[in-house]
Write a structure and sequence with these properties.
five-stranded mixed beta sheet, 0% helix, mainly beta, 18 strands
Length: 231
């Protein structure tokens, strides 16, 4: 899995050769409302396809978790688009099947209004928009197969991070880990930014959301806290 495109010297999107649809389809998300918040829904939208598509979100500036899957063997890219439908960041860059999750709208200055999905080869992809409360709980330790969003409810601690790397990538794959406020509103700290296999100790300011973007399996452990999340 490659969640970030390598610099090939060509323009963005040159790998997506299929024809997109004429206008962005609507994918309902977390709709911001005035006044006291009501009960938070369990899920906010689902979209699937087998080719290229532009999907408009209704999340506004509300942080959300995107659960993304792809079953095809070919090139697969998901870009986050700004209000003018220009690409502002790349959420997914993969060759082949993947299952992972991404955090959007955590940077309040860069709201995501739509997603551009590019899939070169036959194979179904799905995108589900979920509330940040769907982040998996980090209690003690967790090992995840790819990019994911975890929720740490403890206090300040020293965490151990490990990136096993991507054996199919010449450089071993990217590994970036950031923390955000528990509700997703606001960047807290960068814990890791490395290429290839890596491990080390990092300061974890809790409670927080842990957003790891990883080309290969990775793990995090917080000594002294019981482990409940393993996969």
């Amino acid at each position: 899995m490659k969640w970030f495109r390598r610099d090939t010297g060509g323009p963005r999107g040159e790998h997506g050769r299929g024809q997109g649809q004429e206008g962005p389809a609507l994918l309902h998300g977390v709709t911001k409302t005035d006044g006291a918040p009501g009960p938070e829904p369990q899920g906010h939208g689902h979209r699937q396809g087998d080719g290229h598509a532009t999907v408009r979100l209704t999340t506004g500036t509300t942080p959300a978790v995107l659960a993304v899957t792809h079953s095809g063997r070919g090139h697969f890219v998901v870009d986050a688009l700004d209000p003018d439908l220009r690409s502002q960041s790349q959420l997914v860059y993969a060759d082949g099947p993947l299952t992972g999750r991404a955090l959007v709208n955590a940077d309040e200055d860069r709201p995501v209004h739509a997603l551009r999905v590019q899939a070169d080869e036959p194979g179904t992809w799905t995108v589900d928009v979920l509330p940040v409360t769907s982040a998996l709980p980090l209690e003690g330790s967790a090992r995840r197969p790819a990019s994911d969003v975890l929720r740490y409810d403890g206090g300040p601690a020293i965490a151990n991070l490990r990136h096993e790397g991507d054996v199919q990538a010449d450089d071993g794959g990217y590994f970036l880990v950031d923390t955000f406020a528990p509700d997703g509103h606001g960047f807290v700290d960068e814990l890791a930014n490395h290429v290839g296999p890596w491990q080390g100790e990092v300061p974890l300011t809790g409670p927080c959301l842990v957003y790891a973007r990883s080309d290969g399996p990775w793990s995090i452990s917080v000594p002294g806290v019981p482990s409940t999340l393993r996969k």
